[in-house]
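In the laboratory, one determines a bound structure by crystallizing the protein with its ligand and collecting diffraction data. In a computational setting the workflow is compressed into a single prediction: the sequence and the ligand go in, and a structural description comes out. We illustrate the idea with tetrahydrodeoxyuridine.
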Amino acid sequence: MRHELNLKATIFLYDQLDQLSSTDQELVQRAKIALLNSYSPYSKFKVGASILLEDHTILIGSNQENASYPLCVCAETSVLSMAGSNYPKDKILAMAITTKGPKIAQYPAAPCGACRQIILEYENRQSHPIRILLYTVDQQIIEIPSIKMILPLHFDNRYL
Ligand code: THU
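The predicted complex, in structure-token form:
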């Protein structure tokens, strides 16, 4: 027998930044500030990420490229490594990601597959979802309640 299984993902869209809570607005603003430190001379695609810790501390990171292209570090990975290294016991409540690149797409850019897997590890390690906000100027804001929404059938430590 072949069974069909439909995997469901729920995300939320906002038309404007002022529809977000003041904390979320601040988180997005900090991700925009993070864009300024993006080192992306090769792709010309800037990515800024910010994370909100339980005690309301906000950390920021950006993509850091390398002439050896595969060594480029994504903004999400960059800021999560900082959180894990410096605040290992603090729960991460939310992450905002913003991009600035040469093209305008219909929706804000979403984290790459590798970053989704890395975000998943942080979610699992703290047993608490990380809400994700995607923001690109002049586009709707996307809110994703957990990385699991956009990483169905994921691989994690349940198999190890
Ligand atoms: N990039 C990120 O920082 N995060 C992602 O989720 C996708 C891609 C960066 C890597 C590289 O510096 C540039 O964007 C173009 O791929």
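DSSP finds three helices and six strands in the chain. Keep in mind that any predicted model is a hypothesis to be tested, not a measurement.
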